[in-house]
Amino acid sequence: MRFLKQVFFLLALQIVTLVSGNIYAQGSGQEAVYLQTDRTTYIAGEPVYYKFYVLDAENRKRSEISKVGYILIRAANQNPVLKIKVDITTGTSNGRIVLPDSLISGVYKLVAFTSMMKNQGAPLFNKEIVIVNRFDKELNFKLPIPALTDTFKALQTDSTFVITTDKTEYGPREKVKVSLGKLNSKATLAVSVSEETNTFPDKTIVKTMAGLSNDAFKIRPENDYLPESTGKILRGIVQDEMSGKNISDVVVLLSRIDSIPNLQYATTNSNGFFQLLLDDYYNGKQLFLTIKDVPTGQHWKIRLEDDFELPYKWNPSMVLNSGSSKAQLAKSQQIVYINKTYQLNNDVKEEPTPEKSSVCPRFYYNPVKTTVLSDFVPLNDFPEIVVELFPTIQVNKNKETYKVQMMNVTTFVYSEPVIFLDGVYVDDVNKIMGLGSDKIKKIDLLAAERVFGDLVFNGVIAITSNSNEILKITPAPQSLRIKNEKRQGGNMLVTVQPDSLRSATTPFFKQLLYWNPGLELNENSTTSFGFYTSDNTGDFIIRAEGISENGTPVSVCKSIKVTNQPNITDK
Amino acid sequence: MKHTIFVALLMFCIPAFSMTSFPVGVSTVDSVFAPKLTGESYNEFKRFKGNPFITDDWMESEILLATGQIVHKKDIKYNGLLDQVVWLNPVNSNQVILDKLSLNEFWYVNMKGEQVHFRRIDIVESATGHHSQVFAEAAVEGKISFFIQRRIMRVEAENIIEDNKTYSIDVLEPKPLYYIKLPSGTCFVTGRITRHSFLKLFPDQRKVINKLLSKNHLNFRSESAVIKTIELLNRELFL
Lengths: 571, 239
Hints:
Chain A is mainly beta. Chain B has five helices and 14 strands.
């Protein structure tokens, strides 16, 4: 009996531990994403201002895990038209996506996610927007059937947190004073003021967070997407091109152009899979990937995973665009045309983002023996340079293949060193043989057995060229060069100030009057801000959205009218 | 017995199952993409009488790299003869002299259970202005700092006979070098610290320090006594 009591006590303890463990996992380790935009209807060529939120899927507080976010714009039944990576700082990112002028009119979908969400089978963030080509006069495209009940108008009456303005009706180029009520918790909201449109009502953060979309990633029980907490993670496989078989236990090397030889490597697992961390050092740079020591006669290739690949197709139910929205869209086209003609697009104040310090994965730190080639008579090619200047190096030619060997200063044995050109690991020594004194600036030598992590190399030859000769060299078959597109991020405030920026004779038509992605709200006081109306008359909507510090989604809006009625009493 | 096995199995299985539901953590990212140590292969063919390393065993250490990154749990030994840190790579059992300029600091717990902290410090020779980088144990850090360079030096050569052949081997002995950094920023370097030489560094506070030392029964017969003295001065005199 006593034994049974002990068993039950231990089991109860285990169950409590299990349950608390799961709560912790759900409450602190999974993410959800929300993407707020300034509007829902755009003319191709206009920017989409956004605020990207990465939230804890459970408590809706800002997530501190992922530092990279993904946004893509896709058209129905087509491949993505734009792919953007964004820098996430403490759970948010602000920026703008400039829509290409060439986009055809139609409905597009904004999709946002973080890499870690792929593990969880998490719902992706989806938002439909309308993009109209500036030169499309027919406007006979189809729109999805609107099934949105939670528009900003519907929400206004339910909320205790309200927007108040000094008036409800304004004239052109008049200042609008706005006051936001108190909240129970601190919050940073994004505020937009744009012309109201019937084409496509927006969905609030409250509604979105209450029921996320059905489009979700497939659950991956292997949990192999590591959190991108310090940078983007490049994922790929090494495959035999002939057999299609994945190759395990091979080393994939990564470097970029720099004045310092640099290297990062990963070893493929049993499935031929590898991953490399692309921190800020690689942001916006060309990446040089290669497979180390490919056996002769093998055709191994690096295949990289598409970060933006989505697990589902988008095939919405559509109806033909109605006549009323056509008039609105035509007006938008005209406003964009006027602003382009007069080049009136200087309303954006971009706060410069502080340059992030990045760490170079240096291949060595020790002092090297440096030879500056301009100190010597001109030499035609690399073999001649070696013969004349480097007695500890040998270049041998067998048929059309060169072999470079270097003497180890400790063992006096000749063996093949690792060669870097402009900081990049050289995948084929034959391709640097044509470099003479005219192209090479300096050569650094380290004639000892070098260790980099678990890899061992027989000495180092680091060549620095005068003008990045590495770019002129064709990559070897086992190598791959890709551009690691710069991640977006930065605070952008759109504010229209007619007093200081424009004379009365300049046309001044705006559909977006104000966008501030970082309006700070305090707990115990109201927050005020102001903006100016333009010559564009109509109904405008002030929208403030965000997540408070305690994880509560906040959405509030208010309409104002801009009219151009002459004020008779003034005469 | 059957019950015991069942319970034991159940206890093992439940945590194992619950762990699978946890997402991959940030710590996993750090371990997968940990910065790489760089250096040269270490092959010491020379025989010595005495140990060129300051410890007999490999010490599991935390290393702060020059890049600001930290690498964890690396087996290293400090070679006082070469003034170099040697790393034992567990993957291939290679011994590697780590690039001196790649390391800023390292920590390990010694056999007595005390934490030992080494720093790479820049030494400037006042006569020549020549800079050199050495690893020194940071014994005290404060207004007055006390660093010990754990030098191991060749004191003599000794002939030994093995298999009827005579070999000459170097005899090694620890010869620590002490660096006392004063509040003024100047640094005093010596191979031996005496009460007299120490008091000479503080001509204005000589009497007060003498009194403090007598009151606390501190002498200069051991390194630990010097450390205690400097800690006391940082606490009582140079706040």
